């Protein structure tokens, strides 16, 4: 794969509830002309089928073709890797993008990342971003949180990882599920430094 510009990011979907957050974030990153390295866990495929009626094939190349068609993006802009694609750019600090978002992020992936397991490409890519002191954002979804979940998130936060629970606010007066999804995605984009007009910034823009 050629690097098409210096705006590259790793995005991972894991098996927490909240597939629409991940899909919307992917759409926004592509619209912002980012080159997206996408990783999808097998549990995330189950969640996508359950929550979004989107049945993705198992093979990364076929997933890529399906998403390129679904999103109408340029195939150079979106690259999907499998869980054992150890030769992909995201697996090494010498090539991995400096920014990564796991959205949605399961409590299982939080635990694996907090303990540096690197047992699949999502865990390895997160480990690389942490060791390279890049920006890692985890959009975690679980309720309630157990002490173990909270300890894992604290450990990650102390390492500079941003923990953004999938907990949309209501002060923008959402009138649809899309508004709630956009609230979360807008906050992630704000943290990534990507301009967004989906949700007005508090105290600056009025509705
Ligand atoms: C429909 C569905 C919803 C789920 N929701 C959550 C969730 O909100 N949070 C969570 O931590 N796990 C959730 N799980 C369980 C995870 O998918 C499971 O622990 C899985 O092993 C996570 O693997 P991954 O992190 O590699 O994707 C859900 C599973 C399914 C099938």
UniProtKB/TrEMBL annotation:
<feature type="binding site">
    <location>
        <begin position="15"/>
        <end position="17"/>
    </location>
    <ligand>
        <name>FMN</name>
    </ligand>
</feature>
<keyword id="KW-0288">FMN</keyword>
<dbReference type="GO" id="GO:0016831">
    <property type="term" value="F:carboxy-lyase activity"/>
</dbReference>
<keyword id="KW-0456">Lyase</keyword>
<feature type="binding site">
    <location>
        <begin position="106"/>
        <end position="109"/>
    </location>
    <ligand>
        <name>FMN</name>
    </ligand>
</feature>
<comment type="similarity">
    <text>Belongs to the UbiX/PAD1 family.</text>
</comment>
<dbReference type="InterPro" id="IPR004507">
    <property type="entry name" value="UbiX-like"/>
</dbReference>
<feature type="binding site">
    <location>
        <position position="41"/>
    </location>
    <ligand>
        <name>FMN</name>
    </ligand>
</feature>
<dbReference type="GO" id="GO:0106141">
    <property type="term" value="F:flavin prenyltransferase activity"/>
</dbReference>
<comment type="function">
    <text>Flavin prenyltransferase that catalyzes the synthesis of the prenylated FMN cofactor (prenyl-FMN) for 4-hydroxy-3-polyprenylbenzoic acid decarboxylase UbiD. The prenyltransferase is metal-independent and links a dimethylallyl moiety from dimethylallyl monophosphate (DMAP) to the flavin N5 and C6 atoms of FMN.</text>
</comment>
<feature type="binding site">
    <location>
        <position position="141"/>
    </location>
    <ligand>
        <name>FMN</name>
    </ligand>
</feature>
<dbReference type="InterPro" id="IPR036551">
    <property type="entry name" value="Flavin_trans-like"/>
</dbReference>
<keyword id="KW-0285">Flavoprotein</keyword>
<keyword id="KW-0808">Transferase</keyword>
<dbReference type="InterPro" id="IPR003382">
    <property type="entry name" value="Flavoprotein"/>
</dbReference>
<feature type="binding site">
    <location>
        <position position="171"/>
    </location>
    <ligand>
        <name>dimethylallyl phosphate</name>
    </ligand>
</feature>
<dbReference type="Pfam" id="PF02441">
    <property type="entry name" value="Flavoprotein"/>
</dbReference>
<feature type="domain" description="Flavoprotein">
    <location>
        <begin position="7"/>
        <end position="192"/>
    </location>
</feature>
<feature type="binding site">
    <location>
        <position position="187"/>
    </location>
    <ligand>
        <name>dimethylallyl phosphate</name>
    </ligand>
</feature>
<keyword id="KW-0637">Prenyltransferase</keyword>
<protein>
    <recommendedName>
        <fullName>Flavin prenyltransferase UbiX</fullName>
        <ecNumber>2.5.1.129</ecNumber>
    </recommendedName>
</protein>
